[in-house]
């Protein structure tokens, strides 16, 4: 037992290439390969592109805000720790537990999705067996070491990146008529019907939510900062690379899909992992006659799901470990083995993920409620990052520090974090605007369940511990990186 919980330190083993690919891979997944089709069908090519550009810019500002704090004080479970130190411990408590629950449930959703994807090739295998097998695989990868997680994530993400690059090349050649047909497709689909903007501003705003979910996972770079070998140089470099790659991949991919496939195509609106043939990527590859396009994209989608599950296991485990160090969780979860893996936190996360998966089989209604409870958690985390950064920078100046001491400076402060806060609120409110306008209370409760859960956690800790907003001159600006080795 002493070997299993020998220390309370995680190991700084992650390299710059790991951080870049983890953040990039965390945001390129089924949101791009599948959901992008529904975004184009809903708001047209113009509306979809505008929505993804807007959310992409918001994510960039959030990343720079997180980067400024993470290079100054790189810790695992970063935004929970920063909210606790720079705003109010109650906010850090609520953000941490909400984020942990989100990824633990997302882990269950992902392992359930692996069965759906695998049934494309093996329809007769029991779905529960496939899911349990992949859950065990993800557990072993994270059990071995942080480097094992990072290497696995690197190669899974690389598959997605290569797929997008190939898609971009094929798409451009199809548009100009070199591949797929005798005549060029051109940009005629941008003016088909009501295009380029379909449904006006309401439709474009609704796609903000789709785009926001597509970019979920970029904040993982803050979680990995505590285990980076050189956070002062690797984090800024990773942020710069990830922003341009994400914006380039997403915007160009959507632009190509919209050019080749008209927004009126019923296949776009029906895109889902249940039918890989409706993936816009599959449709484009099939158009040029690529043999086995559906099978190839199904494999890519499988890597995306596994990548998400792998990241979810890591993020939730490190968040629980960090909360234990802050007193937000039992001290047991702060213990690590000799390889720096928080074993107790890993076991609990796996257990909760496994139990959530079982509810999908035994009680689908309970499972749906659990998934709904985690739906907006990523956006709440983004909101918390923006608020924490505003407080951090104000406290930094208030306490007489020079900005020259900061290794990395967030762009456009304070415009960046303020814009990120406003857009995060827009996405949160717009999660299910239909139920708000029609007062569909049951649907409203399910769609926005994350909010009362977050408020409940916040109020519970605040009342129990009588916490208050920390005055700027009393904010702790010391470097806490000594918790890692």
Automatic annotation (TrEMBL):
Query: How does the UniProt record describe the way this protein sits in the membrane?
Result: Multi-pass membrane protein
Superkingdom classification of source: Bacteria
Q: Name one GO cellular component term.
A: membrane
Where does it localize?
Answer: Membrane
- GO molecular function per UniProt: amino acid transmembrane transporter activity
Membrane-spanning ranges: 21-43, 49-66, 100-122, 128-146, 158-180, 200-221, 242-264, 284-309, 341-363, 369-392, 412-429, 441-461
Q: Name any one Pfam family assigned in the record.
A: AA_permease
Q: Which residues form the Amino acid permease/ SLC12A domain?
A: 18-468
Extract the PROSITE patterns matched here.
AMINO_ACID_PERMEASE_1
Its principal location?
Answer: membrane
Cite the entry's keywords alphabetically: Amino-acid transport, Membrane, Transmembrane, Transmembrane helix, Transport
PANTHER family on file: AMINO ACID PERMEASE, GENERAL AMINO-ACID PERMEASE GAP1
The entry's protein name is Amino acid permease
